[in-house]
Specification:
By secondary structure, this protein is of the alpha/beta class. It contains 9 helices and 5 strands, in the order αβααβαβααβααβα. Helix 3 packs across helix 9, helix 4 packs parallel to helix 6 and helix 6 packs parallel to helix 8. The longest helix is centred in the N-terminal third of the chain and has 27 residues.
């Protein structure tokens, strides 16, 4: 019988065309893959904005809350840095005065711990709430999420003052849709073994307790930052 009519199929030619296509595709993909490999990374950058409870009053630098928290995060495999922006004696209003330079550009999130000195001075809770609200609004305007660390008033200031002061933090958390850690000093109040002699400031062990108790909330906060960055 005669040869079938139609184009002649050359296996070698098909192979060469396939190889050329694969090579061209590889060249097109190189810049894309390089961009992925060179994508900016590094640790999540947190700033702890607070007073002496954050600063580490009368403690060595490695025992201050931000340093301890960073260590605990790294021990759990979380790549994060926690900058210490605590100033002893600072009030909420003082924090508002310095928030712009205490929280640099490139910050991924802020742990806001202020108000204890307001309470000790008997400052009108309306003033404290207003200053904290302004700090949060300013950070949100810069696209910086906030984890709010709550404070509670001492009972000796009277039930009315305590009720008004204690309500500041849940009110702000609800208003601005913030993650709230209800009480920064949870776990150490009244425990002399975890305080300095003044019974106001945590000692090294007290800071360890504070950071350990707050760690799960901070991890959840960081999870939210990652999700926001991936969107």
């Amino acid at each position: 019988m005669g040869r079938a009519l139609g184009p002649r199929h050359d296996g070698g030619a098909v192979f060469r065309r396939t190889a050329l296509f694969a090579a061209a595709l590889t060249l097109l993909m190189v810049p894309f893959m390089t961009a992925l490999q060179a994508a900016p990374g590094g640790p999540i950058k947190l700033v702890a904005l607070g007073d002496s409870l954050t600063a580490g009053y009368k403690l060595p630098a490695d025992a201050a809350f931000p340093t301890v928290l960073e260590r605990l995060l790294k021990a759990k495999g979380v790549d994060a840095t926690v900058a210490n922006a605590g100033v002893s004696g600072d009030t909420a209003t003082g924090g508002l005065d310095r928030v712009d330079w205490s929280v640099p550009d490139g910050t991924d999130g802020v742990i806001l711990e202020l108000g204890a000195n307001d309470m000790l001075r008997g400052t009108d809770p309306t003033v404290t709430e207003g200053a904290l609200s302004a700090i949060i609004a300013r950070l949100k305007a810069r696209g910086i999420p906030v984890l709010l660390a709550g404070m509670q008033a001492s009972p000796n200031l009277g039930p009315d003052y305590k009720a008004r002061f204690d309500a500041i933090y849940p009110t702000l958390a609800k208003r601005y849709d913030l993650m709230l850690y209800p009480f920064f000093l949870d776990g150490i109040i009244g425990d002399r073994a975890q305080h300095l002699d003044d019974m106001l400031h945590p000692n090294r062990q007290g800071v360890e307790t504070i950071a350990s108790r707050m760690l799960p909330t901070v991890e959840t906060f960081l999870g939210g930052l990652r999700q926001g960055a991936s969107r």
